[in-house]
Amino acid sequence: MKELLFIIPMKDPLRAKSRLASVLPDAVRARLAMALYRRMLRFLQAVQPDVDILVVSDTEALQAALSSAMFLHQKSNGLNAAVSEGAAWAVAHGYRSICVLPADLADPCADDLERLLALQGGVVLAPAHDGGTNALLATPPEAIDFCFGRGSCAAHQQAAEMAGVTCTIVPLESLKYDIDTSTDLARIKGVAWA
To answer: Which residues does residue 57 pair with via DSSP β-bridges, in sequence order?
Structure first.
């Protein structure tokens, strides 16, 4: 059995970052989404080189940015469906655990990721500053039903409770923020996108 699979669900960059439409034109938002995606792949490959990465997306265009990561073409719609498809793929390929990370984390750091991964067992959640979930570690991969979106940290906690699965919440500073709003743009470090 393989230990851990990182899952990065990724929307088509041409449709990503819609909440930034008032401050960024379409083409710039697409470049930003791709830059964040590439940076997340480089970050994971640098800090966890022995762990497999699976990108789940509805667009084949993202495959060009992959080096050692794997790609799963999403069959259904939405973020939760993408994560569910990735979790099912992980089970089918013998992974013990998954770690779901968004491609658009503002400034992830290796130490915080290590802290998260050290807590394997049941479900481990790193909450976003707005009550969402910016990292989810699940053992086994399909331990709970996924409910990403507004208020998802509490929803994931409730899903774990309903499934009879241990749930640990670990606030981690570098995993608190993703890039969704104009305020979030100021938090980006090390991304050339404009």
So the answer is: 10, 73
Q: What is the pLDDT of residues 58-84, one digit of tens each?
A: 887 666 666 678 999 999 999 999 999
Tens-digit pLDDT profile for residues 126-163:
999 999 999 999 999 999 999 999 899 999 999 999 99
160 occurs within a structural domain: yes
Residue 43 counted as domain residue: yes
Q: Which residues contact 17 (CB under 8 A, 6 or more apart)?
A: 24, 29, 30, 32, 33, 104, 179, 180
Q: Is residue 194 part of a domain?
A: no
Q: What is the domain count for the chain? A: 1
What pTM did the predictor assign? Answer: 0.91
Please give the residue range of the domain that contains residue 113. 2-187
Backbone angles phi, psi at 68, to 5 degrees: -100, 0
What is the CATH number for 139?
A: 3.90.550.10
Distance (Å, whole) CA 14 – CA 59: 10
Alpha-carbon dihedral 116, 120, 124, 129, rounded to 10 degrees: 0
